[in-house]
Amino acid sequence: MSSRKNLTLGQKIFRILSGYEIAIICLILLFLLTFFGTIEQKWFGLWGTIDKYFDLKSIFVIPTNSVGKWIFIPLPGAYWVIVLLSINMLFGGIIRARKGWRKIGVLISHFAILFMLIAGAVSSLYKEEGHMTVTEGRTSDFAVKLFKHNIEIFAFDENGDRQKPAIIPAKELKSLGPKESLTATFENLPFSITIEGNQPHCIIASSKNQPPKYNEPVVDGFYIQKTEKDVKTEEFNHPGCYATVKDSEGNLIQKLILGHYHVRTEKGHILPVVARVSFTHKGVRYGLSYDLAVWPMPFSVELHKAIGENHPNTNIPRWFESQITKVDGSEREDHQIFMNNPARHGGYTLYQAGFTKAVKGAPQKSTFAIVNNPSDRWPEIALWVSFAGLTFHFILSLVRFINRSSKNHKTNTPPPTP
Question: 290 exposed, middle or buried (CB, 10 Å; 0-12, 13-18, 19+)?
Fold first, then answer.
């Protein structure tokens, strides 16, 4: 007791953070967060649940049912629980742990677990994701980033082809509130663009069919209509805004609406469609769009064959695979991509994510989920290292047990009877 009383404040904090109590509390909290997150996934979808329970911004979360009623007390966010568990593993499982050749296996396993937790943090901070859709017989060298929308401004040449666009990046637009404005100028464009009324979840609605409820500005018979966030299908959440184009002297050229509108298919499905608008200034036609950010790839993908099958009487794929050739300069490499068998290239991983069954005689399409994750292979390495450490510890303990048992047997054996 006297030795504990003489500890400094830093030593006391170190003992608390490295103790078994913190580890047990963190594991219980992670169990509860995973349990309630799994339940809520039924009502709010995968992306909504991950964003609520595991995102960096989630300091505290309140488990609720489908109507928003509490079903448990508030819990700390899983991200910060894992951060505390990592500190506990470093202090208690490595620094404070007993050292020696007999403990090497345990120390290696603790280090591997800590390495796996760090891999998760790196992935959440630096991972990039996107989708690439390719038609049979064609090649693509770009993807679109998921949930990141840029505003692109581009000119058309004499043949009607798009020139290299100027971009207002998603990072600036995401932080722009509905009552804030952003004015952007570009060196190669003879006008400025002011963005106003930015909404993270909205559609372009017709004032004739549905008049504005909150006196939203109307442009050419259309306005930005705010919508509730779709928690089950994140791809259906699209931003929108008003864009005012002025020349270098401040004269109004055009007022536009950027965003998406909904189209109902013949089978009753609702699909989001990006609204691409244009205007003419000094004899040159320009276009604007508020769409998913384009993500150039350091390689291209040639799709030779897309094979798949839908569930009976549905458009939901049951299984699918793709035969591709990955082209990087003069290097060509064939791959067959299907579930649990992705293609990898220089830190990029291509997964089979979708399949579009075309009408008879038309080419099929494949959609690949592309992930650039610097810690992609770290968990696998951590598992093998942990396996090696535990195997070494088990073998060492088994040898010690056998040696002790042999010595005890010799000691307890009675002398031979004369």
Answer: buried
CB 368 within 8 A of CB 352: yes
pLDDT of 358 = 64
Positive or negative CA dihedral for 224, 228, 233, 235?
Answer: positive
Dump pLDDT digits (tens) for 60-77: 999 988 777 888 889 999
Give per-residue pLDDT as tens, 232-267: 667 778 899 999 999 988 999 999 999 998 777 666
Q: Quote the Cα angle for 44-45-47, to 5°.
A: 110
Q: Could you give the angle at the alpha carbon of 170 between the alpha carbons of 204 and 236, nearest 5°?
A: 45
Q: What angle, 0 to 180 degrees and rounded to 10, lies between the N-to-C axes of helices 20-53 and 9-17?
A: 70
- Separation CA 25–CA 329 (nearest Å): 53
Place of tokens 């300069």: 329
**Within a 10 A sphere around the Cβ of 135, how many other Cβ atoms?**
16
**What residue has token string 């345990």?**
106
Q: Provide the token pair at 381.
A: 């390495």
Instruction: Say if strands 348-356 and 343-345 run parallel, antiparallel, or are unpaired.
Output: antiparallel
The encoded tokens of residue 148 equal 């990141």
Contacts of 72 (CB under 8 A, 6+ apart): 32, 36, 62, 63
Predicted TM-score (pTM) of the model is 0.71
403: number of Cβ within 10 Å: 10
Residue 362: both structure tokens together: 């038309």
* CB 146 within 8 Å of CB 292: yes
Mean pLDDT (whole number) for 377-381: 90
Strand 202-206 to strand 365-372: parallel, antiparallel, or no bridges (unpaired)?
A: unpaired
Diameter over CA atoms, the chain: 121
DSSP 146-158: EEEEEEEEEEB-T
Q: What is the dihedral of CA 412, 413, 414, 416, to 10 degrees?
A: -160
Give, in degrees to the nearest 5, the angle at Cα 54 between 240 and 378: 110
Say if strands 348-356 and 252-264 run parallel, antiparallel, or are unpaired.
unpaired
